[in-house]
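Here is the promised in-class demo. Please do not try to memorize the tokens; focus on the logic of going from shape to residues.
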């Protein structure tokens, strides 16, 4: 019997599910090796079937999400979060730093129809997660590597190095030193292959916090490049604002998290 997998969507933009769809021919090969039991964006719908690996995109933002994630966990041997929304709460976790109700009234013409929680939280806050894949979005190489490892009975190695290290390995010119760009590479985990610096762009931290990060040092550097404290805070309080190390650094930059 072939291994069975599912791809579930919670509160998200669908970009991480595209990491599967963008595999192209490889996805067709994958479909011959595993049974894709549930993947609403691609066709099959069978959310209550038991699977070996359940990939989960998106954060917990509604009461319906809260109930569904328990069912997904109950029907999966391994649960893998894919992307910043599922792993850290996503950009929508910013509502946890604000008056969510006031935001709702500011954004929607008829807020009485919106049924949402006041927070957006990562999947691991609610159920056991076996593996977290970071990125906004994740890439196909990560997803396939994780699936191959899990189905072979091992956990894939965690990529916690900094984007800076990846730049050095690939001999990219440092955009911070050479161009004065406010790059988040010194505190961001790799996994993307230092994609943005390879095009001369600064990293904006979409893979979340790296190991052994020194956000205070980076914040001083960013201020030295001319960023106001508010702008430094926004570099952290963005896609991965719900990751504790980035949230703390962002609040420190605004003065709210100072010791
Ligand atoms: S992590 Fe980024 S790409 Fe993935 S679903 Fe969330 S917003 Fe979309
Ligand atoms: S360089 Fe940074 S922002 Fe760009 S893809 Fe990699 S982690 Fe994301």
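The designed amino acids, position by position:
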């Amino acid at each position: 019997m072939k291994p069975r997998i599912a791809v579930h969507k919670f509160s998200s933009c669908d970009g991480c599910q595209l990491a599967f769809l963008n595999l192209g021919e490889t996805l067709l090969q994958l479909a011959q090796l595993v049974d894709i039991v549930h993947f609403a964006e691609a066709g099959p719908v069978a959310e209550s079937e038991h699977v070996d690996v359940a990939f989960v995109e998106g954060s917990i933002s509604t009461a319906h999400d809260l109930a569904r994630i328990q069912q997904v966990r109950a029907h999966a041997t391994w649960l893998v979060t894919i992307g910043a929304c599922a792993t850290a709460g996503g950009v929508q976790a910013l509502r946890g730093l604000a008056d969510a109700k006031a935001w709702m009234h500011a954004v929607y013409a008829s807020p009485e129809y919106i049924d949402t929680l006041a927070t957006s939280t990562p999947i691991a806050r609610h159920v056991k997660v076996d593996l977290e894949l970071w990125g906004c979005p994740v890439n196909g190489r990560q997803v396939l590597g994780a699936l191959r490892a899990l189905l072979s009975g091992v956990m894939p190695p965690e990529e916690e190095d900094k984007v800076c290290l990846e730049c050095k390995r690939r001999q990219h010119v440092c955009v911070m030193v050479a161009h004065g760009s406010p790059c988040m590479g010194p505190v961001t985990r790799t996994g993307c292959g230092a994609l943005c610096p390879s095009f001369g762009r600064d990293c904006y931290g979409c893979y979340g916090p790296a190991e052994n990060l020194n956000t205070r040092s980076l914040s001083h550097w960013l201020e030295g490049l001319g960023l106001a404290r508010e702008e430094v805070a926004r570099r952290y309080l963005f896609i991965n604002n719900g990751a504790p190390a980035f949230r703390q650094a962002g609040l420190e930059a605004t003065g709210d998290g100072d010791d």
